[in-house]
Amino acid sequence: MVSDEKFYERAEKFVLLKNIDGNCYTLEEYEKLVKENQTDKHKNAIYLYATNKEEQYTYIDAAKNKGYDVLFMDGQLDPHIINQLEGKLKNTMFKRVDADTIEKIIEKDEIKKVELSDDEQMELRHMFLGALPESDRFFVSFEALSEKDSPVLITRSEYMRRMKDMSSIGGGNGMYGALPDSYSLIVNANHSLVTKLTKQKNKDLKESIEAFTSELNPLKLEKIKLDETLKGKKEEEILSNEKDKKEELSKQIDEIEGKKRTELEEFGKNNKIVNQLIDLALLSHNLLKGEALNRFVKRSVDLIK
Fold first, then answer.
1. DSSP of 93-157, one letter per residue?
2. Mean pLDDT (whole number) for 247-258
């Protein structure tokens, strides 16, 4: 079907898709099965799929709790047939079940707002980055998920994963295969543990955060006023002392914010709740191994005592 267009035209009537429970459907049958419940706000039917029942169990379970069906596609040629079907089937997209939170994979009209302020998100983000292994490979974001959902989830880009899978099948790394893996760490802003963590941070770092804020606010206000003064001026119209002042203010702000980030990251690095949440997310994604896994086990025992 992938390599012969005429064969595809004959086989599309009888080719079967198998779901995670072992049930098989023709393309027409599967469209009828999922069209109503798994159509997103853009009118696209979303076909969820998994490649490993055990490793992706958490994400499969979250999808099933929403009443969604999940296909099982663990074959080497599946990335190619997925791309082909997306081009052939009208208004249809395939998305791996762990590519994002289930609310983001199949977006409906209702949008839940994250109640945390921008400053609170920034502070928590640096706490998690401080505890993450090779934090440059992780992007930390916040979503308003259900209180019953996991406090922290790890996802990988659908597009990049698919390109890397196809590159590996081709017998070489290629352009995509040579790129390092990157992940999204999604923090559930509505979970009680995240709320507890925010309160702990506000209590333990109250004095230092207030000190940083008292230093930053006058500098930011001064820079805003300067930017307003320079607004509309051409580069050659800006005086050298104005340029120097703007550069100096930016430098001072960056230095203070850098110190604040360092303190938050150090706090997160040494915080048991942050480390435990991250390790649980890594474990569910099969990314916790060796020494890190051993630390997790020991910390789990300590937390139980």
1. EEEETTSS-HHHHS--S--PPP-S-HHHHHHHHHHHHHHSTTGGGEEEEEE---TTS-SEEEE--
2. 96
Q: Which two tokens stand for residue 179?
A: 């790129």
Q: Which residues sit opposite 138 in a β-bridge?
A: 183
Nearest to 272 by CA among 252, 300, 293, 250: 300
CA distance 158 to 169: 17
Domain ranges of the chain: 1-110
Residue type, 8: Y
**What tokens appear for 94 in the block?**
């395939």
Q: Which two tokens stand for residue 6?
A: 């005429």
Put residue 300 in one of left, alpha, beta given phi > 0 → left and psi -120 to 50 → alpha: alpha
What 3-state class would DSSP assign to 228?
Answer: helix
**Which is higher by pLDDT, 305 or 196?**
196
pLDDT of residue 304: 85
| Model pTM score | 0.76
β-partners of residue 39 are 45
Distance, first Cα to last Cα, the chain:
58
pLDDT band per the 50, 70, 90 thresholds, residue 241: very high
CATH of 1-110, one of 3.40.50.11260, 3.40.640.10, 3.30.420.10, 3.40.1080.10: 3.40.50.11260
- Asked if pLDDT for residue 108 goes beyond 90, the answer is no
Which of 7-15's residues contact partners 24+ apart within 8 Å by CB, and which partners?
A: 8/84, 8/88, 12/88
- What pLDDT digit, counting tens, does each position of 53-77 carry? 988 998 999 999 999 999 999 998 8
Close Cβ partners of 198 (under 8 Å, ≥ 6 residues apart): 116, 120, 124
